[in-house]
């Protein structure tokens, strides 16, 4: 995609650091240099305002990646692209689900969001398909999210850390840059099950297991 767009040696491409490394690796394979931008804290997608601050004379393109069922702000990115003469490329990302499956996931997500306590539930923005139901487990100097996840798994609730290490902290991409929202999200996010096939009893088990762990989330003094 990058080569077809004419991006190559000497160019910079702005990409998100929150997610997998494939996008940055594709930039390197095209001969260009990845420049990491921060994310919006509610959508986990690349933030146009931070992209604007990352533009240089060498910037040729920005890559938008949709995350967890949130859509990246393509309108904001395209406006930025028009102002600076940049290509705005859209990474295919997560596979699309059927209408019925998305509708059922939204029903399950609404059930969880109305009942979960102690975690920050996702912002249900228009168009959110809930490919993953990602909550925030606030940290307080201890690995609260990881402890929370271990206990949930012990209670039979499947959960996963969606992004363990931001790309700009991985070997080969170690850049000394400040991406506070990306760093915070990597330390706090946890994906809870929300599959369309889940029963109400299974959803209740998720709620009960999470809400019973409120003590783990109390601030340290």
Characterize this entry briefly.
With 221 residues, the protein is of the alpha/beta class. It has helices at residues 22-29, 48-54, 74-84, 99-115, 144-154, 180-188, 200-211, and strands spanning 12-16, 33-37, 59-65, 87-91, 133-136, 189-192. The protein folds into two domains: 12-91, Aspartate Aminotransferase, domain 2 (3-Layer(aba) Sandwich); 99-217, Aspartate Aminotransferase, domain 1.
Overall average pLDDT: 90
Helical fraction: 25-40%
Gyration radius, to the nearest Å? 19 Å
Shape: elongated
Number of domains: 2
Q: Roughly what fraction of the amino acids lie in strands?
A: 5-15%
The N- to C-terminal Cα distance equals 51 Å
Question: For the record, what is the CATH homologous superfamily label of the largest domain?
Answer: Aspartate Aminotransferase, domain 1
Tally of individual helices: 7
The total count of strands amounts to 6
CATH class of the largest domain: Alpha Beta
Largest β-sheet summary: 4 strands, parallel
Uncertain segments of ≥5 residues (pLDDT<50)? 215-221
Structural class: alpha/beta
The CATH architecture designation of the largest domain is Alpha-Beta Complex
For the biggest β-sheet, the strand order reads: 2-1-3-4
Q: Write the element-wise H/E pattern from the N-terminal end onward.
A: EHEHEHEHEHHEH
């Amino acid at each position: 995609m990058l080569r077809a767009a004419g991006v190559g040696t000497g160019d910079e491409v702005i990409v998100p650091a929150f997610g997998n490394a494939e996008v940055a690796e594709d930039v390197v394979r095209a001969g260009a240099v990845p420049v990491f931008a921060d994310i919006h804290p509610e959508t986990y997608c690349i933030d146009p305002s931070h992209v604007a601050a990352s533009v240089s004379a060498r910037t040729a393109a920005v890559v938008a990646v949709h995350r967890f069922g949130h859509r990246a702000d393509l309108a904001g990115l395209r406006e930025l692209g028009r102002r600076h003469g940049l290509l705005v490329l859209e990474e295919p990302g997560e596979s699309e689900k059927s209408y019925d499956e998305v509708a059922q996931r939204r029903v399950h997500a609404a059930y969880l969001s109305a009942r979960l306590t102690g975690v920050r539930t996702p912002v249900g923005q228009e168009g959110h398909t809930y490919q993953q139901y990602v909550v925030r487990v606030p940290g307080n100097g201890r690995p609260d999210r990881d402890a929370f996840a271990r206990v949930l798994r012990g209670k039979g609730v499947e959960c996963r850390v969606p992004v363990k290490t931001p790309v700009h902290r991985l070997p080969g991409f170690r850049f000394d840059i400040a991406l506070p929202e990306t760093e915070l999200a990597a330390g706090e996010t946890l994906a809870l099950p929300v599959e369309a096939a889940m029963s109400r009893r299974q959803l209740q088990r998720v709620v009960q297991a999470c809400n019973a762990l409120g003590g783990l989330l109390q601030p340290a003094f």
